[in-house]
Design brief:
Blueprint: E1 7-8, E2 11-12, H1 13-18, H2 21-25, H3 30-38, H4 42-53, E3 57-59, E4 74-78, E5 83-87, H5 112-123
């Protein structure tokens, strides 16, 4: 079977990379489009400059929207305690970096029955 080519709102990845930021913003959902209208913060601008120069960049800007120019790069996003590396793929375009990194661990509780059986066995 042939692999299906990725499209975002009817545009291929090559077409998305050719678009300007304003044209790309028209394709985004409303909350992301409003963020583009307000403009990037100084931290986000600095992050984009670093990303142009090298591939593996650490960042705290979890609210940054993934742009088509970021596809194929590795970004280390801060999750509160450390950094989690993310390889950006085309399906991640228009999502925020914070959506891709979990800040909370899944809690696992041990079974009480097994512990009680072990303690009972040790008492005999």
């Amino acid at each position: 079977m042939a692999k299906k080519e990725f499209t975002f709102r009817g545009k291929t990845m090559d077409e998305l990379k050719e678009l300007s930021l304003k044209e790309f913003a028209t394709l985004l959902p409303s909350s992301e489009r409003r963020k583009f209208d307000r403009g990037f913060t100084a931290e986000e601008k600095n992050f984009l400059k670093k990303l142009e120069k090298k591939d593996n960049v650490k960042t705290h800007t979890r609210e940054m929207i993934i742009l088509p120019s970021m596809v194929g790069k590795t970004i280390q996003v801060h999750y509160g305690k450390g950094y989690s590396p993310i390889k950006i793929i085309p399906e991640m375009v228009a999502h925020r970096l914070g959506q891709l990194v979990l800040t909370r661990k899944k809690t696992g509780h041990s079974s009480g029955k097994k512990d009680k059986k072990k303690k009972w066995f040790l008492r005999c």
